[in-house]
Amino acid sequence: MIRRAHQQTVEQAVQSYIALHATQTWPIATDHAVKALRDTLPDAEHTDAELAELVAAAAIRAGCPVFFASKQAFGKEVLQHVT
Fold first, then answer.
1. Distance of alpha carbon 28 from its chain centroid, rounded?
2. What is the pTM of this model?
3. DSSP 80
4. Cβ contacts of 55 within 8 Å, gap of 6 or more
């Protein structure tokens, strides 16, 4: 979970999430990150896809593996793991 901070920006929240989860042995999961960001910043104007892209970019810059989860046609979930 990300700590709530007064006037926290989306970029700061993403960096906090990455810093908190970067030490774990599991990849950063974009869907979990987006949920945590929505819980922290419910009024963020970004779409879930935009938040996921911000998380993935920040994780890659930090050298963390990323686990992408997205909905595709027919409601099937597509999962990708990138290291």
1. 7
2. 0.75
3. E
4. 14, 17, 18, 28, 30, 33, 34, 37, 66
